């Protein structure tokens, strides 16, 4: 399938000024908004450099996957020359690329949408191609490059970026999330490729998340708003796999980004399967911790 004949899988139109906090409290905990508003760039960058891999992803998502901080971020971009600035700028421009593209099927995109998409993908690519001095920063840049190359429909480059990211940080969450999308039928892969990728993950908790993601992704491909019919098809195609996954899955209780995603996908699978009691049991843990996907696939809240 060609470059512009893909469906967007991130739902950029959902990232608006009213977007939830995708740092899930980390922005507030670190006092990042005050740093940005008062132009304390060195403190802001020192804070970023102090973060581990997962919290770095979490913070960048919180400040970059929204236009809420646009003015302060652009001020930062023009005031500083540093590797941290390149990583932040790339993350923000990648958001803008998908935002400019919108959610239409590729063939229905306007020239303006295509131009905005390709321009900001190119800007993000340039930022992420800078040299980064630490494995955590470099792995994060490669993880986000996976999504850049997905936008360009370059499977080989996306695979290379993923390999580089996990070489540096083997259980890098964002690298796996982004490459999972590359392997999906909506983009550059198919169900067989996606399942093969998921089953070869070595890290148990990460593998568990991706297995849940696979089942939800498979359901999204047959989703027709007829829940009885759709569930029956899913059970027929993947019933044994569903039983195996649910048998070993226990909802995590910590507040890591991995656990947040796991609880969301588990709750979504429960809804798909009609397990109301089990989904209800996760409701409190999802307060203030709802991820954009998988819910946006189905228009659920």
Write the layout of secondary structure elements.
Blueprint: H1 26-30, H2 32-37, H3 41-49, H4 53-64, H5 70-79, H6 83-101, H7 111-128, H8 135-151, H9 155-168, H10 173-183, H11 191-199, H12 204-222, H13 227-248, H14 257-273, H15 276-281, H16 295-298
Helix pairs in contact: 4-6, 6-7, 6-8, 7-8, 8-9, 8-10, 9-10, 10-11, 11-12, 12-13, 12-14
Structure description:
The chain is mainly alpha-helical and 301 residues long. It has 2 domains: 1-189, no CATH class; 199-301, no CATH class. It contains 16 helices and no strands. The chain has helices at 26-30, 32-37, 41-49, 53-64, 70-79, 83-101, 111-128, 135-151, 155-168, 173-183, 191-199, 204-222, 227-248, 257-273, 276-281, 295-298. The longest helix is centred in the C-terminal third of the chain and has 22 residues, at 227-248. Residues 1-17 have low confidence and may be disordered. Keywords: TPR repeat.
List descriptors:
66% helix; 2 domains; TPR repeat; mainly alpha; TPR_rpt
Summarize the structure.
By secondary structure, the chain is mainly α.
State Rg.
Answer: 19 Å
Q: Return the average pLDDT rounded to an integer.
A: 90
Number of helix segments? Answer: 16
Q: Using the alpha-carbon principal axes, give the shape.
A: globular
How far is the first residue's CA from the last residue's CA?
Answer: 31 Å
Helix content: 55-70%
Fraction in beta strands: under 5%
Number of domains: 2
DSSP E strands, number: 0
- The helix-and-strand class reads mainly alpha
Would you list the SSEs in sequence order as H and E?
HHHHHHHHHHHHHHHH
Keywords: TPR repeat
TPR repeats: 139-172
């Amino acid at each position: 399938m060609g470059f512009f004949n893909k469906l967007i899988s991130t739902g950029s139109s959902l990232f608006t000024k009213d977007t939830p906090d995708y740092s899930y409290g980390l922005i507030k905990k670190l006092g990042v908004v005050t740093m940005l508003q008062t132009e304390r760039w060195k403190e802001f960058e020192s804070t970023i450099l102090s973060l581990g891999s997962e919290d770095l992803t979490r913070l960048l998502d919180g400040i970059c996957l929204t236009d809420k901080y646009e003015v302060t971020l652009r001020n930062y971009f023009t005031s500083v020359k540093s590797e941290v600035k390149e990583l932040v700028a790339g993350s923000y421009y990648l958001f803008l690329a998908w935002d400019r593209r919108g959610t239409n099927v590729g063939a229905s995109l306007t020239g303006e949408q295509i131009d905005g998409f390709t321009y900001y993908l190119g800007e993000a690519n340039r930022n992420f191609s800078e040299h980064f001095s630490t494995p955590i920063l470099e792995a994060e840049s490669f993880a986000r490059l996976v999504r850049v190359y997905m936008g360009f429909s370059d499977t080989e480059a996306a695979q290379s970026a993923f390999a580089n990211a996990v070489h540096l940080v083997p259980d890098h969450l964002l690298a796996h999330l982004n490459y999972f999308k590359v392997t999906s039928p909506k983009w550059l892969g198919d169900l067989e490729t996606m399942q093969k990728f998921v089953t070869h993950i070595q890290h148990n908790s990460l593998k568990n998340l991706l297995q849940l993601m696979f089942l939800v992704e498979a359901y999204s491909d047959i989703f027709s708003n007829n829940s009885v019919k759709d569930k029956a098809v899913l059970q027929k195609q993947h019933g044994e796999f569903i039983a195996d996954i649910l048998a070993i899955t226990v909802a995590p209780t910590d507040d890591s980004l991995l656990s947040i995603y796991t609880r969301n996908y588990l709750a979504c699978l429960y809804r798909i399967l009609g397990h109301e009691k089990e989904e209800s049991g996760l409701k409190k843990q999802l307060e203030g911790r709802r991820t954009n996907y998988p819910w946006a696939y189905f228009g659920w809240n």
